[in-house]
Amino acid sequence: MNRRARRRVFMGDASIGEAGTNRGIGVVASTRASGIWRILTGILLIVVALFHLYLVVVAHVGGTLGVLFVLQSIAALVLAVALFVTRGVLRRIVLVLSLLFLLGSLAALLLALTVGFFGITEVWTFTLVPATVVVEAIGIVVAAIATAVMLRRRAA
C-alpha cells in the first residue's frame, strides 16, 4: 500500500483500503486497537516495576529478594520503553516477551505464596501482595489481547 492510500485508510476512508480493496475500516480499527492495547500493556509494566521498587525502597525488602525485585523492575521498565519505541517485528517480539515476563512474575509470586520459590516464601498480608496479584493478572490479560490483536493484524 502506498503512502497516499495509507493516509486515506488512517483518515477513515472506508472505500479505499489495501490495494484498492474495501478493507479500510478494518485496518483503522485494528491499528488503533493494537496501539491502545500495547500502550495499556506498557503502563501495566510500569506499574509492576513501581510496585517492586516500592517494596525495595519503602518496605525495605532486602537480601536476595531485594536484588531480584530491582532486576525485575529494570526488566519491566526496559520492556515498557521498548513497547513504545520499537516497530514491526521487533515490537511483536517485545510484546510476546512482555506477556511471558508478566506470566513468570505472577507464577513466581503464586509459588512463593503457596509452596515457596527458591526458598522464598510469602504471605498474602505482606505489603502490596494482593495488589500485585491483581495488577499482574490484569497485565497478563491485556498483554495477551495486545499480542493477539497485533498478530491477527499481521496475518490479515
Automatic annotation (TrEMBL):
Keyword terms: Membrane, Transmembrane, Transmembrane helix
Transmembrane segments: 39-59, 65-86, 93-120, 126-151
Name of the featured protein: Uncharacterized protein
Source organism of the structure: Pseudolysinimonas kribbensis
